[in-house]
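User: We ran a pulldown and think these components assemble together. Before we commit to crystallization trials, I'd like a predicted model of the whole complex to look at. Sequences follow.
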Amino acid sequence: MLSIILLGTGNVARHLFDAFQENDHLQVVQVVGRNTEALNYFKKRANITSEFKELKTADIYIIALSDDVISTVSKELRINNKLVVHTSGAVEMAALTGIVRPGVFYPLQTFSNENKINFKEVPICIEAKHREDLEILRGLAARLSDKVYVVSSERRRVLHLAAVFVNNFTNYMYVMAADICRENDLPFELLKPLIEETANKVKKQPPYEVQTGPARRNDSGTMKKHLELLKNTAREEIYSVLSKSIRETYRNGNQ
Amino acid sequence: MLSIILLGTGNVARHLFDAFQENDHLQVVQVVGRNTEALNYFKKRANITSEFKELKTADIYIIALSDDVISTVSKELRINNKLVVHTSGAVEMAALTGIVRPGVFYPLQTFSNENKINFKEVPICIEAKHREDLEILRGLAARLSDKVYVVSSERRRVLHLAAVFVNNFTNYMYVMAADICRENDLPFELLKPLIEETANKVKKQPPYEVQTGPARRNDSGTMKKHLELLKNTAREEIYSVLSKSIRETYRNGNQ
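Assistant: Here's a predicted model for the assembly, 510 residues in total across the polymer chains.
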């Protein structure tokens, strides 16, 4: 049995908590958070507290907090000789200041209130300063997911950058499309099957091969008309920059 | 029974053909295409030809060809008093030169060789010069899909522009992420659950509300490190332009 203390009450903490609870070999002994309302989510199934001085003891402490407070919280923890990990894609392991046994447990997924996640499919990227701790994290990750990867802080940063493209920037493409629809009284619903199929395609074929559209085929007439529709909006620049890059990517390839 | 002649042998023509074949009230009497190899796909189930002079007669002629040849082909057709439609999102109905009964039958989806499409879910945007023809197209579309919309050429252009964002540009986000992974010996597989969930989220929540990431929270430290990783690549400009726009979109909103 591996005992766990979760620090944080946000989406990542909640999803991890639920996944841990489903496994008989894992026990979340405590959830720590300043937001007492958010703590309510956990109180029936674990001890909760808002005070660091009430911190219990466990095998692993998981800091599932926003990037900018990881370092500060790790300093305040004053934990000796216990494994302490954070869950961030962008923060180095070394940010766990003053921690003797630091590590990282980064689930590469986007978590929200609404959607239940199948953790078996979520890649979990682990890192630890000490080899024994890496094995503990490997064991923990393997109880949740079939996809466990050892990834250094340096490579995790690159992975997180790639994740920004497929998650943050992609979602922003949806934002802009929804805005265009709204401004023209067109239902955004119309685009949802296309959004789904665009994501589906890439499961089976490399994205490079399935690229289509006016920029891909250098259809300057259509691009010109699109730019006229976007005139004087931030989207005009985005359309231009992306179309230029697509054209250059495929200029020397086969159409 | 509605009889149909399909002009074109590409992905749109193939998917439409298959969907038409599944419906007892529709009959594809002929498929016309210059590419004799591509024509083979249809030959067991319909008459095929490469010659316009062998063109048969039908209730509807569907031009499922690339945007740039629609006008030329419609001129060569010499069809009198029959409904002739194209399937393009970007081309005006008026591009059907010399056609007395022009229309548009635009399935808003991305079609590929690999993936079977559930047509019931595909929005079909229809347009016709004459009211009676619009009703014919509405009947045809309703046999394939539960989502039939009447959309003018002007609004279809806007819709197509929005589709470029959620399909072409989104796929290009995948292309760039795959490149970043490849250049750093990271498996692109790692990002596929995230791609899927990003598309899933938007089914249930407006994309504006689920936007996350360094630009959304104005995390300049992470953005700076990301830009260093992208230095001297086309992706550096794309990252900057998108992050700037995300920041400005949310500057006055709540975080």
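The beta strands of chain B are 2-7, 26-32, 47-49, 60-63, 83-86, 101-107, 124-128, 148-150. That may be worth checking against your pulldown data before setting up trials.

User: Thanks, that helps.
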